[in-house]
Design goal:
Blueprint (H helix, E strand, L loop, with lengths): L1 H16 L16 H16 L3 H9 L15 H12 L7 H5 L10 H15 L2 H15 L6 H10 L3 H14 L4 H13 L3 H14 L4 H13 L3 H14 L4 H13 L3 H14 L3 H9 L34 H53 L10 H12 L5 H38 L11 H48 L2 H20 L37 E4 L3 E5 L4 E5 L21 E7 L18 E7 L4 E8 L16 E4 L4 E6 L19
Parallel strand pairs: 1-7
Antiparallel strand pairs: 1-2, 2-3, 4-5, 4-8, 5-6
Helix pairs in contact: 1-17, 6-9, 7-9, 8-9, 9-10, 10-11, 10-12, 11-12, 12-13, 13-14, 14-15, 15-16, 17-21, 18-20, 19-20, 20-21
């Protein structure tokens, strides 16, 4: 029984770490009451109290510290009902009081003063400890010019420190009042922290100066959405989508609006457009709830599959002999080829053993990290980075649709079996013909007899060559079809595995594919026949020695990174890693309110080396530059990181520009933030007063 309890606790911990789409209750579903919650908490506490010391030690060894549920504060029925309504609310109610308090749009000259006033108002909301911390971090960043205050702000925003991020971005706007990206990003942060009334005047100023900018239009739409003015929000979001059809955030909020209006079909269409350039499991789950299923054509995949990933087409093997003269030579060649294959197989088998051990170690570490993430609430991606998209885009490579692959394999295997059946008949015919020749020539051979040895040799060789020609021609044709099918299957499986498996798993899959290939090509059925009796044996049967081909390494050729000062991101085919680089920056986290720890959703657009004709203003979602990147995240995890290049191989990547890595130095890059339409994390700055209206 205790084992089952342990399994339950583990499952609970794992599920807490996995991305979960928000659940919309049915009309009959009601939020739990205080009594129901108390009963559930008591049951969970009882299950944990009854865990054996052995099970507790096991949990401790995995880094899991079981919390006590006894000290969790109780919530009233009204609080539970309000929380349930907020969780399932699609669009906010119109807040007429906050809308009426929106200040007039400042002029260009008055904008710096307005931003300073907003900053002062926000600083006044900070606790003394938070203010001291923010000032200390700001001072440290100013002493490290390679970081940049604005980039530091974005880094802390991604790291779930919204108040610190807003403080730093406010200082960045004051330090560089002409930097339009910083001003836009400040307004985006204000919107996502619930201060839409402060963001709208800033965004209206930018919209007048830089019309038709998709980032500004989206951020205006999100701000009005947050205030509950859905008509205005829709107009701005529609404008953003007209400029850039696949604007991720604008389309996602349009989905919420359409769903709130009961337009399920339109909501699903908007969500599919949101997913096109930025897929996430949450979005895919929501789409299913809207009655639609995502297909491969609905998402972009930034990689192109090479024709022969493993390099299997480079492998050559000796020819199939078509006569007895070739047979003597090729038999030795095949023996040498098989020996080379077996030698390589031995090396691969030894290496496979080590790789399997590495895989076990990696799985244990990943399980432990997943459990720890579930305890701390930190984001943790439970699957390889591109796996969800790869399943959609590349599943056709391994999917046996309508049993097509199985049918081809059965057909090619049957073709080989049919040839082998005929081969038995051909072999019997050969034996019978040679017996007739033996009856013909045996009486003529011996002392004092004619001894027509050459004729006997030639006729036996002709019979055997006839057999070799017939058997090997058809064996080669049948096995060639089978080998080609296997080659394609192995290449497809390995290429697909590169994106849906962690690197340690992929290495095991890859080496097993190599082992399977070598066994396949060395075990080909080839027929050999020596020359007939009394034939001269003076020919040199030594074959030309050829080296066994080497496999191509199906290593990830796509690597991209962005360094925006305090944060650095590195991405390859299956991994995405982000790390906080504080360096000399003094940062002591002392935050009491849970609201301050929200991972607020957003997306970033980065560009470097803008091409001719680049429009001024904040970086747009459809960024067109020589080098650009996109990042999107929600309240659980970073869901998208993509780098593209429009130049030559010097900036290369997998996108037809070579295999070199792409790096974006964010301090030098333009960075534009698109705010999201998520209701989570709102309310942090909802009550700030930036209006002179009484």
């Amino acid at each position: 029984m205790k084992r089952y309890l342990l399994a339950f606790v583990l499952l609970f911990a794992v599920s807490a770490a996995l991305p979960q789409a928000p659940k919309k209750p049915s009309a009959k579903e009601k939020p739990p009451t205080q009594k129901e919650m108390d009963d559930m908490m008591k049951q969970m506490q009882k299950a944990m109290d009854e865990m054996s010391p052995e099970d507790k030690r096991m949990m401790d060894s995995m880094g899991i510290k079981m919390p006590s549920l006894k000290n969790i504060p109780k919530a009233t029925d009204k609080q539970l009902a309000d929380a349930s309504q907020q969780e399932t609310q699609l669009v906010p109610q119109k807040n007429t009081a906050r809308i009426a308090a929106i200040p007039q749009t400042p002029t260009v000259a008055a904008l710096p003063a307005f931003i300073s006033m907003v900053h002062t108002t926000i600083v006044a909301k900070l606790t003394p400890g938070e203010r001291t911390e923010a000032e200390t971090v700001y001072g440290s960043i100013k002493q490290n010019p390679g970081i940049g205050t604005a980039n530091g702000a974005i880094s802390f925003w991604i790291q779930s420190r919204p108040l610190l991020a807003i403080y730093l971005m406010g200082k960045a706007c004051q330090d560089e009042p002409e930097d339009i990206d910083n001003i836009n990003n400040y307004a985006a942060m204000l919107t996502m922290a619930g201060a839409e009334q402060a963001a709208i005047p800033v965004l209206q100023n930018l919209n007048k100066r830089f019309p038709n900018n998709s980032t500004v239009l989206n951020n205006l739409g999100q701000a009005w959405f947050g205030l509950g003015d859905i008509d205005k929000a829709s107009r701005y979001l529609d404008s953003a989508v007209r400029i850039y059809a696949y604007h991720s955030q604008a389309n996602f909020t349009k989905c919420l609006i359409e769903e709130g209006h009961g337009n399920t079909e339109a909501a699903a269409d908007a969500l599919i457009r949101s997913i096109k350039k930025s897929h996430s499991l949450d979005k895919e789950s929501k789409l299913r709830k809207l009655g639609k299923k995502l297909s491969g054509k609905d998402v972009d995949f930034p990689f192109k599959m090479p024709q022969d990933p493993l390099g299997l087409e480079k492998f050559n093997w000796p020819a199939y002999p078509m006569n007895v003269t070739e047979s003597a030579i090729q038999e030795e060649a095949w023996k040498s080829f098989i020996a080379d294959c077996e030698e390589t197989l031995g090396e691969l088998s030894r290496k496979a053993g080590q790789l399997e051990k590495n895989l076990v170690d990696a799985l244990e570490k990943r399980t432990k990290a997943l459990m720890q993430a579930s305890q701390t609430g930190q984001p943790f991606n439970p699957m390889p980075w591109y796996a969800p998209i790869a399943v959609l885009k590349l599943n056709y490579l391994v999917e046996d649709k309508d049993n097509g692959l199985q049918y081809r394999m059965q057909k090619s295997e049957q073709a080989i079996a049919d040839v082998l059946m005929k081969d038995g008949e051909w072999e019997n015919t050969r034996i019978a013909e040679e017996e007739k020749l033996s009856e013909k020539y045996d009486p003529l051979i011996g002392e004092g007899r004619p001894n027509p040895l050459h004729q006997y040799c030639d006729e036996v060789n002709a019979v055997r060559s006839k057999y070799l020609q017939m058997a090997n021609t058809q064996l080669q044709a049948a096995q060639e079809t089978y080998i080609n099918d296997q080659r394609k299957m192995l290449n497809d499986q390995v290429y697909y595995a590169q994106y849906i498996n962690w690197p340690e798993e992929f290495e095991v899959i890859k080496i097993n594919a190599k082992i399977k290939w070598l066994n396949l090509i060395k075990n080909q059925l080839v027929r050999f026949k020596p020359k007939g009796p009394y034939c001269d044996g003076n020919e040199d049967n030594t074959p030309k020695k050829s080296k066994l081909s080497a496999f191509d390494d199906v290593a990830c050729k796509y690597h991209s990174s962005a360094d925006i000062g305090i944060m650095e991101f590195n991405n390859d085919c299956s991994r995405f890693e982000g790390k906080l680089k504080l360096g000399k920056i003094t940062y002591t986290r002392k935050i009491d309110s849970d609201d301050h720890d929200k991972l607020l959703a957003a997306s970033l657009e980065l560009s470097v080396g803008a091409s001719a004709g680049w429009e001024k203003g904040p970086v747009q979602a459809e960024v067109k530059a020589e080098l650009s990147g996109k990042m999107e995240w929600n309240d659980k995890e970073i869901t998208n990181w993509e780098v593209t290049s429009e130049v030559t191989a010097s900036a290369g990547s997998n996108l037809g520009h070579g295999d070199q890595s792409i790096d974006i130095a964010g301090v030098k890059a333009q960075i534009g933030m698109n705010s999201s339409g998520s209701l989570k994390g709102k309310g942090l700055l909802q009550d700030i007063n930036v209006s002179n209206k009484k």
